[in-house]
Design brief:
It is a single chain. By secondary structure, the chain is α/β, with parallel strands linked by helices. The protein has a single domain, classed as Spore Coat Polysaccharide Biosynthesis Protein SpsA, Chain A. It has seven helices and eleven strands. The strands form three sheets. The protein has a seven-stranded mixed sheet with strand order 5-4-1-6-10-7-11, with helices on both faces. A hairpin with a 2-residue loop joins strand 2 and strand 3. The protein is globular, with a radius of gyration of 17 Å. The chain starts with 7 loop residues before the first strand and ends with a helix. The model has no long low-confidence stretch (mean pLDDT 90).
Length: 244
C-alpha cells in the first residue's frame, strides 16, 4: 500500500496552546481513551511508512516531547507566530527525498485512518496539482473556513462568514508539492494580529489553478477538538467505533 509514499513526508503541528480547553495543558496532550490526542495521528502515520514525520512543538515544548518520548523527530517553533510559521519550522528539516508533504494538526486528526490518508496522498499525486486541501461535509456548523465552489463544483475560495451555516468546511489538512510549498509559504503576509496563517497560501494555488480538493468520504474521520464539548464528541465517536 505504501509504495507511492516513499518520497512523501508529514509535518504534524503540535505547537498550539489550546486556550479554549480551559487548561494550561497543551491541547495535543489532552487524553482520549488513555492516549494523548496527538498519539493517534502519529501512530496512524507510522503505518504509512512515510519518508519523514516531523512534529512541530512550541508551547510547553519540553512537556510535549517528554510525554511523547524520543522516538519522534521534533522541530521547535521558537515564537508562536501562526500555523504558516510553524510549518516553516518543520520544512527546514525535510530531506531531498521528500517530494509530497502532508501538513496536519496534531489535535483534530485523531479519527483519521491510514486508508484515508493513503487515499489523500494518492488523490494529490494523481491530480498533478501543487496543493490538495482536505475538506469535510458537516451538519449545522459555523466555521471560519467554509468552502465556496462554482457551478462546475470547483473550489474557488473560502466563505469566511462564520455566522452562516455551511455544509463543507476546510479541515486544516493539506498536501503540498514540497518545492511549491517552500517558495509560496514565504509569500504569506503577516496578519493584523501578527501571525502568519497557512490558509493564506491557498490563494496562490487558486490564482495558478493548481488547487485540488479532497472531500472526506466519512465525515466522522475529522472533528475539531478545541473545547471540552468537542473533545467529548471525539470520545463518543471512538467509543462507537470500538463497539462496532
Amino acid at each position: 500500500m505504501n509504495s507511492i509514499l516513499t518520497n512523501s513526508s508529514a509535518i504534524v503541528l503540535a505547537a498550539g496552546k489550546g486556550t479554549r480547553m480551559g487548561t494550561k495543558i497543551p491541547k495535543v496532550l489532552r487524553k482520549v481513551n488513555r492516549k494523548y490526542l496527538v498519539q493517534y495521528i502519529l501512530e496512524t502515520l507510522k503505518k504509512l511508512e512515510l519518508n519523514q514525520v516531523i512534529v512541530v512543538v512550541g508551547h510547553q515544548a519540553e512537556l510535549v516531547k517528554t510525554r511523547l518520548g524520543n522516538k519522534h523527530f521534533y522541530a521547535h517553533q521558537e515564537t508562536p507566530l501562526g500555523t504558516a510559521d510553524a510549518v516553516k519550522s518543520g520544512i527546514k528539516y525535510l530531506d531531498n527525498t521528500s517530494k509530497y508533504i502532508l501538513v496536519i494538526n496534531g489535535d483534530d486528526s485523531s479519527l483519521l485512518t491510514a486508508k484515508t490518508l493513503f487515499q489523500i496522498f494518492q488523490n494529490h499525486i494523481e491530480s498533478q496539482k501543487n496543493l490538495t486541501m482536505v475538506t469535510s461535509t458537516q451538519k449545522n456548523v459555523s466555521h471560519l473556513f467554509g468552502i465556496l465552489k462554482n457551478e462546475q463544483n470547483e473550489f474557488v475560495g473560502f466563505d469566511r462568514n462564520s455566522s452562516q451555516n455551511i455544509k463543507e468546511i476546510a479541515t486544516g489538512i493539506y498536501i503540498f508539492n514540497k518545492d511549491w510549498l517552500k517558495k509560496h509559504i514565504e509569500l504569506i503576509k503577516q496578519s493584523d494580529k501578527g501571525s502568519f496563517n497557512l490558509p493564506e497560501i491557498v490563494k496562490f494555488a487558486l490564482l495558478q489553478k493548481t488547487a485540488n480538493c479532497f472531500i472526506l468520504g466519512n465525515s466522522e474521520e475529522w472533528r475539531s477538538a478545541n473545547t471540552p464539548q468537542e473533545l467529548n464528541r471525539v470520545r463518543r465517536i471512538m467509543k462507537r467505533r470500538k463497539n462496532i
